[in-house]
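Exercise 7. Predict the joint structure of the components listed below.
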Amino acid sequence: MKDWPLYEVFIRSRSGLNHKHVGSLHAADPQMAIEHARDVYTRRMEGVSIWVVESSRLHASDPMENDAFFEPSQDKIYRHPTFYDLPDEVKHM
Amino acid sequence: MSIGIERVEYVLHLADNALILGQRLGEWCGHGPVLEQDIAMTNIALDYIGRARMLYQYAAGICSPESTEDQLAFMRNEWEYRNLLLVERPNGDFAHTVARQFFLEAFQMDYFKALQHSGDATLSAIAEKSIKETAYHFKWASEWVIRLGDGTEISHHRMQEAVDALWPFTGELFCEAPCESWMRKSFDCPDPAAMRSGWSARLQSVFAAAGLEIPTGNWMQEGGKTGRHTEHMGYILAEMQYMQRAYPGMEW
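Solution:
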């Protein structure tokens, strides 16, 4: 059981919302990972749908490059939808 | 209409099964083979404790005015419990726990479906809730029977050993106790013997996938349903009842 791969778990908390990363766990295969996720992450009615993906299949940005990647967006305030009123009907923005 | 001591016995039989198995599974808390299974087993334990509570509350209501769910769960003596011998078997290794769960869930899959159609409205409602839980518990147990049976040489050997060791405790599932027969005649509750064909079919299909042999021995242990328990029962109660015995009526 020590060589079980790591899986990342994504839970959709309600219909209409997107799946959100909630954590990781070990499992022998994807089916077991989904069952483990059910037991570990949805015990308190947190979800209506589960995705799992082997952690080794994820590709991540390099933290060393954070400045180059993310700083340029910090002074572009005009990209935020803050200059007009959203109608109440638009939820989850 | 007479309430009948048989109905109290019958409800206690179902309640005691749930409580004792819940207690057994709870013993894994902090000791599971991996964190994920530790939580899986304690989740199942909590399903069972929840079911036990509903049944004890019902039993207390029809038993006597002064009885309560806590008193029924914690203050009775060994010979007053009506649970199957199977559920009081020790956890053993993980394979024993899986085999015990598998044998019981394979039985309960049909049992609660049948109980749902009984003439007792409370039992019918509890059965309805239990059907969904049982479907998941059965899936959990079946998958582990297959994974271990069809796994390595060691896991196969230990799974087969667990199946063989628990086999003599499966016969009691299908023996109809007097209270069950009374409830069948009065409220159309299930005849446990009628569950055998579905149970055997589940065993055949899962054991075939697991590469395990179904034991053939037909010498069976029984007695739990009428209060004759194995040597393990007293130890379970000693641990489980200690607080209520030492500090009667305590709450937190």
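Discussion. Helices of chain A lie at 30-41, 66-70.
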